[in-house]
Amino acid sequence: METEEKKTELGQGILHPSARPMKVYVGDDGIMYLCDTDIDPSLPLKDQACWTCDQVQFTRGG
Q1: What is the 3-state secondary structure (H, E, C) of the chain?
Q2: pLDDT per residue as tens digits for the range 17-35
Q3: Cα–Cα distance between 12 and 24 in angstroms, integer?
Q4: 2, 4, 20, 21: which could form a disulfide with 37 (CB 3.0–4.6 Å)?
């Protein structure tokens, strides 16, 4: 069985498994946002109930 190696690009909508599906995006302002997967990344992230790192406690780095 072959495994496919995926290249991770931070801020390009990385999917993180959680209780609710979320992705990490980098806004035009350079700030990282944690968003629900069904947002429209072409619209302003802070207007779509996304959280910035100062609003969310992350329990592990990476």
Answers
A1: CCCCCCCCCCCEEEEECCCCCEEEEECCCCCEEEEECCCCCCCCHHHCCCEECCCCCCCCCC
A2: 657 788 888 888 888 888 9
A3: 7
A4: 21
Domain ranges (residues) in the chain: 12-52
- Nearest-angstrom CA–CA distance, 32 and 46: 10
Total count of residues recorded for the chain: 62
Q: Is 3 exposed, middle or buried (0-12, 13-18, 19+ CB in 10 A)?
A: exposed
Measured CA to CA, the distance from residue 45 to residue 59 in angstroms comes to 23
What pTM value is reported for the model? 0.57
